[in-house]
């Protein structure tokens, strides 16, 4: 009898373990489906071509990479949004507004002209980020896809934009 009870207990524990594994498998499948459903509708596959025509509209600056150094948007930043429309780029690089013109040079390249910006005082971190952004955001940029948006590439500089 003792042997039978142990056998039944191990069967119960086996079923419990199997049920837990099934539950975890189901939960991970639901999580993966949820992540897939919430993937940015503007994300591009790495081998997908991005053109100047499909970068029009509103974007947020995610980060800047310059000479291998990453510059993230400071938490203190009010906004880092840019709008690309009608050969004009306008937006906010932290707390100051800026504008610059651009000319499409090919299907995947834009030539951004020197722009202008307001100069109100911000926190030092935000001002540093804005200075870096405004210094590098001029010249011939190639538009490339990224996982969650696009990257504007100029020499050793990359500006990551997300919707």
TrEMBL record:
Question: Locate the DUF306 domain: which residues?
Answer: 58-157
The region annotated as signal peptide is: 1-32
InterPro entries, alphabetized = DUF306_Meta_HslJ, HslJ-like_sf, Hsp_HslJ-like
Q: Which Pfam families match?
A: META
User: Which PANTHER family does the UniProt entry name for this protein?
Assistant: HEAT SHOCK PROTEIN HSLJ
UniProt keywords, alphabetically: Signal
User: Is Signal tagged as a keyword?
Assistant: yes
Protein known as: META domain-containing protein
Q: Which domain of life is it from?
A: Bacteria
Record has Signal as a keyword? yes
């Amino acid at each position: 009898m003792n042997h039978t009870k142990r056998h039944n207990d191990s069967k119960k524990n086996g079923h419990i373990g199997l049920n837990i594994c099934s539950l975890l498998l189901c939960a991970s499948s639901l999580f993966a489906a949820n992540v897939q459903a919430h993937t940015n509708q503007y994300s591009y596959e790495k081998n997908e071509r991005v053109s100047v025509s499909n970068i029009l509209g509103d974007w947020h600056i995610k980060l800047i990479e310059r000479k291998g150094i990453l510059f993230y948007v400071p938490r203190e930043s009010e906004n880092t949004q840019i709008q690309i429309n009608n050969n004009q780029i306008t937006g906010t690089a932290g707390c100051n507004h800026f504008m610059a013109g651009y000319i499409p040079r090919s299907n995947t390249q834009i030539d951004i002209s020197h722009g202008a910006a307001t100069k109100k005082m911000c926190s030092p971190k935000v001002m540093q980020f804005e200075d870096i952004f405004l210094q590098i955001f001029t010249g011939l940029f190639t538009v490339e896809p990224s996982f969650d948006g696009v990257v504007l590439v100029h020499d050793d500089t990359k500006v990551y934009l997300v919707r």
